[in-house]
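Amino Acid Chain and Its Fold in Token Form
===========================================
Scope: a single protein chain, as residues and as a discrete description of its fold.
Amino acid sequence: labelled as such and written in the usual single-letter residue code.
Position: the record begins directly beneath this header, with no further notes in between.
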Amino acid sequence: MKQKVINKTVLISIFLAAAIWGAWAYIVNRQSDNVITTTVLQVIYSTVMTVYMSYSIHFVFMRLNKKWAKLILPTVITVGHTGFVLILIHYLNNTFNLFKTVTPPLIVATAYSLFLSWKYFEEISSGVKS
């Protein structure tokens, strides 16, 4: 199965992630002195990580053999380390509302990763090549 990472779904996901999570970071940190820095960090992180997650999910997925592993482990591995980086970046930035800033993006990142794993699994199960 060859991966088409930069497709319509991923491009829409990139745009939505940057817009939604940038706006969210601004809203929950608007009373902070570093609201602009926090917002820009979140926009950049969301954009880069959406692309990276698309590659990472596929990379891990293709190296696993068991059904349950293909559905769960790509998400655990990808969201685990990208979530750590997100929290670290905002911690180092001294983000005012760290918990409120990172929790919703991490929840959605988990759902997005599970969606991609399921999509790849369905393609393999049906014999359709992407």
